Every structure is written in structure tokens, then in C-alpha cells.
Amino acid sequence: MSNLDSLFDNNIRWADNIKAEDPHFFEKLAAQQKPEYLWIGCSDSRVPANEIVGLLPGELFVHRNIANTVVHTDLNCLSVIYYAVAVLKVKHIIVCGHYGCGGVQAAMGDTQVGLVDHWLRNIRDVYFNKKNAFGADLDDKARVNLLCELNVAQQVANVSHIPSVQNAWEAGHELSIHGWIYDIHDGLLNRITPSINAIEQVAEQYRVKKKLL
User: Fold this and answer.
1) Pairing between strand 176-183 and 188-191?
2) Do residues 189 and 153 touch, judged by C-beta distance below 8 A?
3) What would the pLDDT profile of 40-99 be if each residue is shown by its tens digit?
4) DSSP, residue by residue, 60-120
5) Active-site position among 44, 63, 96, 148
6) Is 118 among the catalytic positions?
7) Is 46 a catalytic residue?
8) Nearest Cα residue to 145 out of 102, 174, 175
9) Nearest-CA neighbor of 170 among 140, 207, 145, 144?
10) What is the pTM of this model?
11) Residue-wise DSSP of 27-67
């Protein structure tokens, strides 16, 4: 079994290249973390968040899971969003999916794949609720890609329903939520949803007021 020496070698070269451009980069990085962006993306290894948008370590706060979902029972994701919004004071939350997502494709099928089936249920719900959007003229690839887009739109809405996000707006903080999708075939990003930057853009039944103690 490999001891992964090649990865350590890669790390040394990477750190040396960074320091060649900015000798004090890591000193400044260790002193503070002040990203303006939270990236909620897919765990797919072909979608490297920082590289896609050309940002260095420290400039992008990242959360990734299968099919870039934001679920109201996922304490991991909710904690990341809370920390990003309430502590780091990020100005932008980006939900980024990608075309050809394996999680989305699996959610469209009827075959059990294991424990992940429970996670994919969230995407199956999107598929069911938006079933009228899938015309008979769409081939399999187009159907998957359409659900990738619809899934991003739903997760953007889910982010806007989170109390910590709404509390930030109530406090007057500058915060916008964006829905993007990445095309692995050409490396380009596309906007999927209008940006949400105020409570007035959230459906009334999902608006929650902060409890006064």
C-alpha cells in the first residue's frame, strides 16, 4: 500500500509556490479568517471550489455534501451556515451544483444504493414536486441536468428559510444567496437563480421572527 509520499511532495511544491508569490502569505492566513463567501457545493472530486472561482485559502468558506443539499435536519450544514453568517459575517452564500451530478442521477432512479438513499430522498422530493417541468421531449441527460438546476434552486430557497440567515437580514447585515451551476465539460459557471438578499423575497410561510428573551 502506498504511503502517499507523492501527496506530501505535492504539498511542499504548493506551499513553496505560494510563498514565492507572497513570502508572508501563511503568516497572514494563520492570523485571521475573513472570507466574504460561503460555498455550499457537491462532494464530487471534479468540482474544486477554490480553483473554480480563483480564490486562495482563507477567501472561501466551504461546505460540501452529496448533491449540494441544504436540509433542515442536517446539523452539520446548519452549523456551517450559522458560523459563516453569525461569526465570519460572510456577504455571499453560494449554492453551486454541477451538471451530470451522480447524486441527482441516483435520486431519479428506482434502485437502492445503500445508506445514501436516505440523503437522496431530499432530491427525490424535488423531482416529485417539479415533475411537471420534465417534458416528454427530454432525453435522459437533459432530464438529469434539469433536475440539477431545480435542485440548486430548491437549496437556495432552503438557505433563505434558515433562522440565522433571516436574523442577519433583520440585523441589517449585507447578505445575498446565489444559485449557480458548474459545467464539468467546459469549466464554466452559470447563474441559475436570482439572488436573494432580503426577507421580502422569502415566501411568508417561511419567515420566522427572532424570539425575544
Assistant:
1) antiparallel
2) no
3) 999 999 999 999 999 988 999 999 999 999 999 999 999 999 999 999 999 999 999 999
4) EEEEEETT----TT-HHHHHHHHIIIIIS--SEEEEEEETT-HHHHHHHS----STHHHHH
5) 44
6) no
7) yes
8) 102
9) 207
10) 0.92
11) HHHHH----SEEEEEE--TT--HHHHHT--TTSEEEEEETT
Cell representation of residue 21:
508569490
Residue 140: active-site member: no
**Phi and psi torsions of 121, nearest 5°:** -55, -35
DSSP-assigned beta bridge partners for residue 93: 38, 177
pLDDT digits (tens, 9 = 90+) for 165-213: 999 999 999 999 999 999 999 999 999 999 999 999 999 999 998 766 5
Count the residues in the chain: 213
Catalytic residue among 63, 98, 148, 178: 98
Q: What is the dihedral of CA 50, 54, 57, 58, to 10 degrees?
A: -100
Taking the C-alpha atoms of residue 213 and residue 5, their distance in angstroms, rounded to an integer, is 55
Q: How far is CA 49 from each of CA 9, 41, 117, 121, rounded to the nearest angstrom?
A: 22, 7, 25, 25
Task: Annotate 113-135 with b (16+ C-beta within 10 A) or e (fewer).
Answer: eeeeeebbebbbebbeebeeeee
Contact 92, 121 (CB under 8 A): no
Give the cell for residue 136: 416528454
